[in-house]
Batch of 2 targets.
Target 1
Amino acid sequence: MKEIPNMDELLNSFIDGELPARQQTEVQRLVHHEEKIAQRLQQLQKCKMLLRSLPVAEAPPQILENVKASLARKAQIVEQPLVFDERAGTRHLLGRKLFAAAAMLGLVSIFAAVVYIIVAPTIPPGPVAIERRDLLPKVDVIEPEPSLIAAPFSGRLELQTSDLPAVVGVINRAIEENIPSDEWIASDQSNVKEPHALICSSESFNLLLAELGNIWDKLDSATLFVDTEVFGEQVVVEAVTAEQISGIVNQDDSKRRVEVAKDFAVLNNIAEHLPGREILTAIDETSVGLIIPPKPVLTSNQKTTKKSATKTGAEKNVRLIIKVKGSN
Amino acid sequence: MDIYASKRRINIDDAVLVSRCWQGDSAAMEELILKYQNRIYNVVLKICADPDDAAELTQETFVKVIENIDDFEGRSGFYTWVFRIAVNLTLNYCQRNVRLGFRSLDASEAKAEYSSQSNLALKEFLSDDSSPDPAALAQNKELYEIAVESLMKLGDAQRAVVVLRDIEGMNYAEIAKVLDIELGTVRSRLSRARGKLRQILEAILQ
């Protein structure tokens, strides 16, 4: 038998009477001549017959009433104001959305707080000052030069004389006249062995020094110990003069003061080893590298006027201990 | 009763009833329901196989028909329009049941157990070269059970075509309109459905 494509479709259409008359005749001829086709046709017809033999089911009698009831219910629903329901639904939906958004924000906040606690650096307890530089008035601050800051002079002056009472007397009188009483300490003026402790202004000290310049002829030795910034370390200026003391004390800062003291110490030491030579006179003021100490203003025999450091506003930047010893 | 003859008569009446429905005649609507409810119910039942669901789907079909009667333009017959609504609702119901797991896709693969009497009746039916009397065949309860079970083992689309053709008696053109498919698709789908049905029946005997 020659295989015909879609034979089943052709046979089914033949069974159902859906073929044109010419094809219908052709299929009939095939069925008569081909036993297999006839057999297949019978199989398909049996299937059709089996389904057609199924009894027709009758619908439940209440269908019509149910349809009417259903239509009536729908009509009632349509008559109700749907707009109100839609609005209520919209409000409900909006409320749920807002609640969900709030819950989400809360969760994010908690998460952020947890992350901040874990990640953020710890701040020490106590008040926290927040500087708002943009709010502060702009002030031009003039920074003082380090050299201009007046560091107090601290030192000790040891005088040795064969005429101890006279020297002590001059010193006491000079202190009384030139140094305010609250700027010097002397435990007992009659006791010459007790040192004088002065804490006074440089101005008062210059007046005192000018007064003491007259006793230098009576001194066997005068040694100035200048305290440095290093604790316990001193610069010792032997054979120091009143002018040199003034030059050292009147320096602006301690570093400069120490340098001048060292220079004077060297000069005085050389002078000691080369007696008869006036080194200082040989020094020209224009000489390079040598330090010329400022000369104190001496008032000679003219009586000085006692001024209070507090009144003049001068700072107490001289701390000197004057110790006078007698020569053996 | 000749199903085709009754169908032609109904079609003539349908046009009058539909026009009365358009005028708001509720009696005409009731008459349409009463005329078609058994046929719709029968087709729906053969596709979905559940009497309660079939009743509900039939009811839903008529509700939709009445709600949309004004949209019916008369380009196709009222008869095919009603069946189109019914079959679409039923096929949607079947798909929904499959999705929800109420009906397994593998149901067609499950081999049903039949009594020896049923098997014997089927064997006689298939081997008999003569054409059996349809009325006598309808009385055979064993074959009825096998036929229903075999029909349910077809896919939804194939079952719908077979039901519309062999149970409702529609021609191919009407089936194409109801299912909204091409005429050639109807032909091939029906051919495959009957071929598969034959295989199912033979498998029962083995």
Target 2
Amino acid sequence: MSVTIRVVLPAHLRQLAHCDREVSVDAEPTQRGVLDALEQRFPALRGTLRDIGTGRRRPFVRFYACEEDLSHEEPDAPLPAAVAEGREPFLVVGAMAGG
Amino acid sequence: MSDPRRTFARMSGVRVLVGTRKGAFVLTSDERRLEWEVAGPHFPGWETYHVAGSPADPDRLYAAPSTGWFGQVIQRSDDGGRTWTPVGNEFTYEGTPGTHQWYDGTPHPWEFARVWHLEPSRTDPDVVYAGVEDAALFRSTDGGASWSELSGLREHGSGPKWQPGAGGMCLHTIVLDAADDQRMFVAISAAGVFRTDDGGATWQPINKGLLSDGIPSPAAEAGHCVHRLAQHPARPQTLYMQKHWDVMRSDDGGDSWQEVSGDLPTDFGFPIAVHAHDPETVYVVPITSDSHHFPPEGRLRVYRSRAGGNDWEPLTSGLPQRDCYVNVLRDAMAVDSLPECGVYFGTTGGQVYASPDGGDSWTAVVRDLPAVLSVEVQTLP
């Protein structure tokens, strides 16, 4: 069942997709559902979050919500209720890396 | 008395496309090349290895920004760099790509990392080639929307023996032959130079005459760290090469190479360029060594040979002659084709230098960009 999910994107991707910091997508409340819907709405994001070939999360991309790191959750695991209900956003974060 | 507005309208000019560690910049000037407009950064924060313009349509540009977080994207402009649109970024190797050698000699799977170089077709603005890491050649025939590998290169035989250079195993140079539309040259670090004579279907290594200390066989068919190739359109059989060490020349389309380092203060370096109107005038930027990536004695000097190599003269007017410890990377030098040939290069210190007189004098167009990765020039009508 699709619900409206709030997604917060980092600066590099906002610039690429020409969108605001926070966008909404109608999606299944899972990581895969949100990312599929995000790529459908903003085709320029295809390949920037997940490897196009394998579908795996890019190593320095992290997903957070409700102050929890969801990066290692299964793609089809349900997102927290607060995200599915629109009370909290799903955060896409470029990992702090480098010097 | 002529109308100055009409004079201005007829005046040609140049557009310099600069890729940097943190985005792209477009520098424009009229044919005098004295005053410059600087636009950018485009793609701020994205490491832009290369920006290139179509010879067939100067308003069509391609750029290759990437980041370690979000990977590779390709951007296209249809208005000379004022606005950009993301196009296709799916670079999938044909078939099962197999392995090449890792730094320690063990097999390593072929993995796409980034695009190093974009080479638009001379005749069709929708056709563009991409040289990528891990080394392979891709082509788009739809303006960058989709990409297909020319896998005959990677699969021609020596591929499993290719090893990365210090910067990764990259296909960094693509030369589309000026006379034969079926002929192309590519250079790979650290594999060497390869040529196709059938539009990219089949390839052969052309490294005869290259000598590289430190590899098991100094004269091996592949394994050479070629940094850059240059060709003059009026003499396509002649190729110039800046190798890891040695400046080389071929007069038979790459079948054999001779060293032309001559009296250079050091023959290590990255870029090499040929004067637009004289196939025997060549430019290099000597760099101290492979461990000291800065000019000898802290003096930034372009060296010019008017004899196709061997005899070189330093060009210093306007360039810093003390305390200069920048590098000039392989894709960061280019020439325009105005009647008095302009020469341009960018540094890892963020300067872009221009010479409107074939190298005799230089001025810094900009001094404080992010580290410059590439410089290309379009000569505008």
